[in-house]
Specification:
Layout (H helix, E strand, L loop, with lengths): L1 E10 L8 E9 L5 E8 L6 H14 L6 E6 L2 H6 L2 H9 L13 H11 L3 E6 L7 H16 L10
Parallel strand pairs: 1-4, 4-5
Antiparallel strand pairs: 1-2, 2-3
Helix pairs in contact: 1-4, 3-4
């Protein structure tokens, strides 16, 4: 099955903070009918980077069988999480920054690697607000899901 995942990790669930995340899965069933599934999380006091990663993880973990995935995000941080240098060094080898400073979000990077393992994932960076039509899709769908909080998913999703 082919699935498109649109994410927004700095969604506007709360105007006073980083908000939550919104994720929308879009897929076509065997009869050719288009379906969407919304995942969102309301306000959580954390960083935008963690929200970006959680948006991606929630989408991948929601897939109950191996899929071909096109993953759309406007986050440079998510781009880097998919970068082989980050995966090999900071995630698998546990590199540190500077003088033993812990690298942030390694827990989520490891969870991301586990979530994407069964799938064939094509990551597509929709550079923010430069007219890329899929960026508008991310904003429309994923932010709408986050703002609506139709389905609340927390960091305990497994």
């Amino acid at each position: 099955m082919r699935v498109k995942i649109y994410t927004d990790g700095a969604a506007r669930g709360n105007p006073d903070g980083p908000g939550g995340y919104g994720t929308v899965l879009e897929y076509t069933d065997t009869k050719g009918n288009l379906h969407t599934r919304e995942l969102s999380q309301g306000y959580q006091r954390t960083t935008n980077n963690r929200m970006e990663l959680m948006a991606v993880i929630a989408g991948l973990e929601a897939l109950n069988r191996p899929c071909e995935v096109e993953l759309y995000s406007d986050s440079q941080y998510v781009v880097n999480a998919f970068n082989q240098h980050w995966i090999e060094g900071w995630i698998k080898k546990g590199w540190k920054r500077g003088k033993n400073e812990q690298v942030k979000n390694v827990d989520l990077w490891k969870r991301l690697l586990a979530a994407k393992e069964p799938h064939k994932v094509k990551f597509i960076w929709v550079k923010g607000h430069n007219g890329h039509p899929q960026n508008e899709r991310c904003d429309e769908l994923a932010t709408g899901a986050a703002d609506g909080n139709d389905l609340i998913v927390d960091e305990g999703i497994s």
